[in-house]
């Protein structure tokens, strides 16, 4: 399985922190935001990822990852303008063609190892798997409707949700996702929507799901970043710090900053 991190956007909801840096390098706790989705992928045994990002600070992401993760392999794809999640995903086709992929939004933070879900997906006939979370205010998100082991409907920000299961920013897809994206038309807001992709899998009867029991956060706003910081400081930040220590040069630098946590 290949990894994809979608780290586009200008980060306007995190202004002024994003005035001079890429949104995904803004700290959540004591680590840059991108370390959290990257850790989720590394927990799946993925040792490198395709990174889609954009904006004037595009090169900052590659400079950071090369310095802190010299043992991992990354490929980078610029997204010149915001065209939606599906459009961003389409850019990585040269790197992941012919493979299943784990796709994660760069501002999403999860607590959990989803290796079992990945194994289930790899061994199934599913074309895609969405990660769902039970929440109190699902009307703010895409909401999934289930029938046994499949998702049979997704409503975007419904006034009367059919369930309390929000669609998070972690997805598994097979290689047919790129063919599906090529059939899309822009939505009313001028973007290629990932929900339209997921609805094509629903029509095929091949959209599965995994319900997340642990934490899920979106650090893309001032308020949600604060909530995510409160969580990561209770253990996830330290787990990631310890996982970074395999490279001796990186370990040396980390000890200078985090001696008490390593």
The structure class reads alpha/beta
Shape, please?
Answer: globular
Low-confidence stretches: none
* SSE string, helices as H and strands as E: EEEHEHEHHEEHEEEEHHEEHHH
Strand order of the largest sheet: 5-4-1-6-11-8-12
How many β strands by DSSP? Answer: 13
> Helical residue percent?
25-40%
How many domains comprise the coordinates? Answer: 1
CATH names the topology as: Spore Coat Polysaccharide Biosynthesis Protein SpsA, Chain A
Tally of helical runs: 10
For the largest beta-sheet, the strand count, sense and barrel status come to: 7 strands, mixed
Radius of gyration over all CA atoms, rounded: 18 Å
**If you average the pLDDT, what whole number results?**
93
Strand-residue fraction?
A: 25-35%
Give the CATH H-level superfamily. Spore Coat Polysaccharide Biosynthesis Protein SpsA, Chain A
What's the architecture in CATH terms? Alpha-Beta Complex
- What is the CATH top level name? Alpha Beta
Distance between the termini: 30 Å
Could you describe the 3D structure shown?
The relative contact order is 0.17. Strands 5-4-1-6-11-8-12 form a 7-stranded mixed sheet. A two-stranded antiparallel ribbon has the order 2-3. Strands 7-13 form a two-stranded antiparallel sheet. 32% of the residues lie in helices and 26% in strands. The protein has helices spanning 35-42, 58-68, 85-90, 93-96, 115-123, 177-182, 194-204, 222-232, 236-243, 248-258; strands spanning 2-7, 27-28, 31-32, 48-53, 73-78, 101-105, 108-110, 128-134, 142-147, 150-156, 165-173, 207-211, 216-218. The protein has one domain (2-131, 169-261): Spore Coat Polysaccharide Biosynthesis Protein SpsA, Chain A (Alpha-Beta Complex). The protein starts with a strand and ends with a helix. The chain is of the alpha/beta class and 262 residues long. The protein is globular and about 55 Å long. Strand 4 (48-53), helix 2 (58-68) and strand 5 form a beta-alpha-beta unit. The model has no long low-confidence stretch (mean pLDDT 93).
């Amino acid at each position: 399985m290949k990894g994809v991190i979608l780290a586009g956007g200008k980060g306007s909801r995190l202004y002024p922190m994003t005035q001079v840096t890429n949104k995904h390098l803004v700290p959540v706790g004591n680590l840059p935001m991108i370390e959290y989705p990257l850790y989720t992928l590394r927990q799946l045994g993925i040792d490198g990822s395709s990174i889609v990002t954009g904006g004037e600070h595009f090169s900052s992401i590659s400079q950071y990852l090369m310095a802190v993760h010299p043992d991992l392999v990354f490929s980078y794809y610029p997204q010149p303008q915001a065209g939606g999640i599906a459009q961003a995903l389409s850019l990585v086709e040269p790197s992941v063609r012919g493979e299943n992929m784990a796709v994660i939004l760069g501002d999403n933070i999860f607590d959990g190892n989803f290796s079992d879900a990945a194994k289930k997906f790899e061994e199934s006939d599913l074309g895609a798997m969405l990660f769902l979370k039970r929440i109190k205010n699902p009307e703010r998100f895409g909401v999934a409707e289930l029938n046994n082991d499949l998702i049979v409907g997704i409503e975007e920000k419904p006034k009367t949700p059919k369930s309390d299961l929000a669609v998070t920013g972690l997805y598994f897809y097979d290689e047919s996702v790129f063919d599906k994206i090529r059939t899309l038309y822009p939505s009313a807001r001028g973007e290629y929507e990932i929900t339209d992709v997921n609805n094509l899998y629903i029509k095929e009867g091949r959209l599965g799901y995994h319900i997340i029991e642990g934490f899920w956060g979106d650090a893309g706003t001032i308020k949600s970043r604060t909530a995510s910081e409160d969580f990561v400081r209770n253990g996830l930040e330290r787990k990631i710090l310890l996982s970074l220590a395999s490279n001796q040069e990186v370990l040396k630098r980390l000890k200078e900053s985090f001696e008490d946590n390593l």
